Amino acid sequence: MNLKPNIGRAEMDVLRYISDHPGSTVGEVGEYLAETKGHTRNTALNVMERLRTKGFLTREKVDNVYRYSPALSKPKLMNQLVGDFVEFTLGGSASPLIAYLTEQQELNDKQFDELKALVKELEDRRK
Predict the structure, then answer these.
(1) Same domain, 57 and 80
(2) 63 and 15 belong to one structural domain
(3) Are residues 20 and 60 in the same domain?
(4) Domain boundary among 48, 70, 92
(5) Over the stretch 65-102, which tens digit does the pLDDT of each residue have?
(6) For the chain, what is the domain count?
(7) Judging by beta carbons within 10 Å of its beta carbon (0-12, 13-18, 19+), is residue 68 exposed, middle or buried?
(8) For the chain, which residues score pLDDT lower than 70?
(9) What's the rounded Cα separation, in Å, for the pair 65 and 36?
(10) pTM of the model
(11) CATH of the domain at 32
């Protein structure tokens, strides 16, 4: 599946929520958005349908209620979104992202270990 890079902040927020809560209803997402952003249930429905149209979400009718789930697993989705960001926003170069991680971001021990593991994996692939 080739996801489109044009995803807005509101869409990303809803997509993250549904990735963490697969099978969410419009009402559940509406409550989340009302509590966190002050948005209405109608906004939730509009954003969720946009995400479904773009191929990011699927929906299934269960007991007369539509339940929305991510089209991809969370790791695959995040990988695709980062890839799209690097390709379209950074022009295919990961250097600005790497510079950000090394200069701007405070990494905790777990994140630092994950980054070291990724570097090792890249080194192993080059051999």
Answers:
(1) no
(2) yes
(3) yes
(4) 70
(5) 999 999 998 889 888 888 888 888 899 998 888 888 77
(6) 2
(7) buried
(8) 1-5, 104-105
(9) 23
(10) 0.74
(11) 1.10.10.10
